[in-house]
Amino acid sequence: MAPLTVINESFVTNNTYQLLDDRFTNAVRVNVITTTVAAVCKRSNKHVQKKRRIVARVHCRNIKNECPELTCKEPVLLPGRCCKSCSSDFSSDIVQDLPAQLSSEEEERSLKHFGTLLTGRTSQVLRRDEPSPTSMYNSAYNYLATGRFTFHRKNLYYSFYLSTSTPRPRGIQFIDGSGSILEEQAIDPIGGVYQNATGKLCGVWRRVPRDYRKLLREERLHVSFIWEPSATLTGQLSRYRTLSTEQYTSLLEPTMGVDRSLMSGAGATAIVSASSASAPSIHVSLVFNGVFLPNDVSEVPLIVQLEHVEKDYVVLREEIVVKKPSNELNFGEVRSALSGADLRLLTRGKLSISIMSRKDPQALRLAGIVGPRANCEMYQTLLLSETPSAASGLAWAFLDRAGSLRYGVQLIGLEEESPLVTLVDEGGKRRTELEDLTPSLFEGLANGSLERPGPRFLEPLFNGELAVVAASHVGSMLRGRLLQRPVADARDTAAPILLRRLSQEPVHPGPVGLVWTAIDLDCSLHYELEIAGFPQTSSTNSHEPRTFRLYLETMPLVVQGAPVARRLLEEFTGYILEGSVTGLSPVELYRIESGIGFLEVTDKQAERILKAPFKARAPLNCLPHYADNDVASVVAYNLQPPKSDIETGACFHETRFYEEGTQWTSSTDPCYMCHCYRGLSQCDPVPCPVLTCAEGKQLKPPPGHCCPLCSTPGINMNATGKNISTVTRSCTLAGQFHLPGASWHPYLPPMGFDTCTICTCDHVTLEVKCPRVQCPPLDCDEKFAFRPSKKACCKQCPATTPSPTIAGDTTRLPRDQAALSIKRTTEEILASGGCKYPLGGPYENGMEWHPRIHSHGEIKCVKCRCKNGEVRCDRKRCPRALCNTIAHQMKRGEYVVNSDDCCTVQCRRARRHHRNNHHHSARHSVTPRELS
C-alpha cells in the first residue's frame, strides 16, 4: 500500500489509525490476491522519515502461519478468527504483540505535571552530534522560555511564558531523542484574545499517538521553538512533582550588570505555591542553569532571594547547595513561612525572585517577577436553576498578565427580577460570599475584572470551589462552580456562546450549554462544547452517557423564509465535546463571521434541545472575493455548501425570502406579480383584460387590487356608486383572491402572464373559469403562419410584397400568396415585423427569397426567410440517401435523375468535411453577413 503523507496518522480501508497502532482486518487486497477471514492480515502503522519528519505508512503481514500448536484432535475455526482453537481453550488464538493498555483515566493521571525550560544551554542536548552551538550562528541562543504541558482527552496542551527579549516564534516542533520531528505546528503571529491578555503562548497537539505518549511518560520527548533555520531553542519535557500545586510562575533571566560571557544562554524558571492556612507559607522550586563559575565543580552554594519589586524589602533569603553543577539543568527548593501581608504582595505581583552565586552575586544573577502560573487555563461554569425555572446562564474567568481576575457572566430569564450576582467560596462547611458582581451587571451581561485578588479568591479558584450565584428577590437562583479548562483554539476568543432551550417552560433541571468557537488560518472551525442540566433517565441504561448531535446552520439573512444550510458537525456521547470541522465553504464562513450562523444540539431522536446564534472572526483568505453587504451577491454566490443539506434556490425580494416556484403580489405595488425562478425573483406588471360591461357599470379596483371590474350583485358600493366598500365573497386561484365578477389573466411563472387566457370569477357560484382565446382559421398553410409577437395569441398569415428594386417581381413570394396592390414604405414593413437585408430588402414578415451576391448573382441553393424582424438563411438539405444514390449512379456512369446542381455539388464534398457538418445541424445555417 502506498505511503500516506499524513503525519502521525494513516488511513486504510476507510479508517484512520494512530501511528504505531496495530489492528486486524478481515480482508486486504494485495496485488491480485485477496485474503479471506481464514487468512487475516495484521495492520501495523509503522513510520518512515522524510527530512527528519515522521510520516505514517501502513505495513501488513499475514499471521495465519503464526498460529499456536493445538493439543486437541478436532479443533474448530470460530467466526472472525484466523487460527483454529480447541473448544476448551478460551485464551486468545491469535499472536498478540500489543502492550497492555492503560485506561484513559490512568493515562491522564500519569501524563500530567510536565514542564520544560528552553535556553541556549538546554538546546545543546540534541546537538551533540553537531558542532557545539554558540551565539555565533544560533541567533536564538540568548532567548528564554518556560513551558507547562497537560495531557487531556488524548490531547497534549502546551503553555509557555516568553522573556521580554524573546519574540514570538514562527513554529513549534515536538521531537524525539534522535532529533526526528514527530509533530510540527505553525504559530499564529498575533495570537487570540486570551494569549494577548495573559502574555502566554498556548496551543495543543491533538490525538497524540500511543507510542509518543510513551515517550512523554518516559521523559524522552523534546520541544523546540523555531524562529528561522539558524534560530532555535530546545528543551526536554520533564515531570516536576511540584507542578501539581503550582499557583505562580516566574521566568528568570540575567539582570543588568552581570557577566554576559559567563551567563550567555542562561535562564531559570520558578514553580511557586503558597498556603494561607493558620501559618502562611511559601514553597519555591527552581530549575536553572548558568549561575556557576568555571571552577565550580561540586558543593556550590547559591542564594535564593524573594524581594519587593519597587521597595528595598527582602521577604526571604535562603541558601541552597548544588552538589554537582550541570551546564544544562539544575534543581533547587526553598520553603519558608510568610506573613499575611507578604502573601498579599505575592498574589498582587509585587514580588520578584532571584538566584545568584554566593561567590560573585553581581556577575552571576538571574531574576524575574512572580506572576500567575504559566498554564493556559480558563475557568468556566454553567449556571443551573435549583428550582423549576426557565432561567439559565454561564460564567467564565481567567487571570491576566497583571494577576487581575477577568470575568464574564450572562443570564437569561431573570431580566425582570433584578438578580444579585456574587462570588461564593463553597470550600468550607459554610458558604462565604467573597465579591458582589452586581454593579457590573447590565441587561443580563456582566463583564469586568477584580484587581489584585488575594489568596481567599485564588485558593478556592484553583481548587474548583469558587461558585457564581445569581439570586433574585422572588426566589429564583442560578448556581455553578468555576472549573478549570485548558485553553487552545476555540477558547482563545473573547467569550463563549450561551445555548438556550427552545422551550421556555419552567423545568428542573433545565438543559443549558455553552460553546467556544474560532476559525483558524486554515479555515477550520474549532468548537468546544459543554452542556448540563439533563435529568437522569429511568431506563436500565441510565448509567450510559446520552448521545447527542451538534449541527451547524447558516443562512443568507435572518429574515422570513430564508433558506437554511444544515450540516452535522459531530455525534457525541457525554456532556463535553471538543472538535473541529474542515471544508467549510467561503459562503458559510462569511455567514458565520456576519453573525448569521447557528449551533444546535439535538438528542438521538432528533429532538431539538439547545440552539443559539454565534459569530466567529474568519481570516480574509477564507472569505469570498467580495467585501460588500450586497444581499444578491451573497445569495447568488453559492447556495449549496459542500457536505451539507442542499439549500433550495430561494429568492430575496423586498424584506423576505420566497421559496423556489412560489408567486406573490408585490407588497409595495399591487399591480405587480412576482415569482421565484432558479434563485432569482422577477416581477411583471399586471395586464388588465378589456371589460365587456358598459362604462357606467365599471368600478374602480379596491385597495390591494389592480384592475377595474364590472358591478355585480355580490359587491357593495359606497355612496358615490363608483367605489367598492365591502366584499363578502371572493374566488381563490393560486393563492390569490379575486372579487366576484372580476376577470384577469392567469400568472404562469416563469413565462409571466398568459394573455391568451382570461379567467373569470362567477358572481353566483364563485367558480373560476379560464377559457383560452379562440383563434380564427388561417387562410394560408400552417408552416407559413407566424405570431406577430412572442405573446401573440393567434398566428397570422404572412403579408407578401414585391421587391422594391424590381417592380412587379412575384417570383420570390410564397405560392399561396398574392402580391400587394399597394407598395408599402420601409417604415411600415419594418413596423409589421419585416426585415432589413443588404441586397433586395426590406422584406415583409414571413417572406422567403434566394439571396443575391454581386459576383455570383442569385444563390439557388440557399433560401432566406423573414420572421418577426429576424432573417434566417438555410442551405438546401440533401438527405444522405440521395447523396448515396447520386454517388452510385455517377460511379457507374449513369445519368443522375431527380437531382439538381445544389445536391450534386453538396454530395461531392470530402468525407471529413461532411463528417464535421454531421456533428452540427443537418441544415447548414448561413448568416446574411457571410453571403454579402
Q: Biggest β-sheet, characterized?
A: 10 strands, antiparallel
DSSP summary: helix tally: 13
Low-confidence stretches: 1-7, 27-45, 92-100, 131-136, 627-646, 801-821, 918-932
Report the sheet-strand fraction.
35-45%
Shape: elongated
CATH architectural group of the domain at 488-533 and 546-623: Sandwich
- Average pLDDT taken over every residue: 82
- Class per helix and strand makeup: mainly beta
Q: Which radius of gyration do the C-alpha atoms yield?
A: 43 Å
How much helical structure, as a percent, in the residues?
under 10%
Tally of DSSP β-strands? 65
Distance, first to last CA: 67 Å
User: Can you identify the CATH class of the domain at 488-533 and 546-623?
Assistant: Mainly Beta
Which topology of the domain at 488-533 and 546-623 does CATH recognise? Immunoglobulin-like
Layout of SSEs?
Blueprint: E1 9-12, E2 15-18, E3 22-25, E4 29-30, E5 33-34, E6 41-50, E7 53-62, H1 104-110, E8 114-118, E9 145-152, E10 155-162, E11 171-175, E12 181-186, H2 193-198, E13 200-205, H3 210-217, E14 222-228, E15 231-236, E16 238-239, E17 248-254, H4 260-263, E18 267-275, E19 281-289, E20 300-308, E21 314-322, E22 330-337, H5 340-347, E23 351-357, E24 365-369, E25 371-372, E26 377-385, E27 392-399, E28 405-412, E29 420-425, E30 432-436, E31 441-442, E32 445-450, H6 455-462, E33 466-471, E34 477-481, E35 483-486, E36 497-501, E37 512-519, E38 525-532, E39 547-554, E40 565-573, E41 576-581, H7 586-593, E42 597-603, E43 608-614, H8 631-637, E44 651-653, E45 656-658, E46 663-665, E47 672-677, E48 680-685, E49 698-699, E50 709-710, E51 715-717, E52 724-727, E53 731-733, E54 736-738, E55 743-744, E56 747-748, E57 752-753, E58 759-761, E59 768-769, H9 826-831, E60 848-849, E61 852-853, E62 857-858, E63 862-867, E64 870-875, H10 880-891, H11 901-907, H12 911-918, E65 925-926, H13 928-931
Antiparallel strand pairs: 1-2, 3-6, 4-5, 6-7, 8-9, 8-16, 9-10, 10-13, 11-12, 11-14, 14-15, 17-18, 17-24, 17-25, 18-19, 19-22, 20-21, 20-23, 23-24, 26-27, 26-34, 26-35, 27-28, 28-32, 29-30, 29-33, 31-32, 33-34, 36-37, 36-43, 37-38, 38-41, 39-40, 39-42, 42-43, 44-45, 46-47, 47-48, 49-50, 51-52, ...
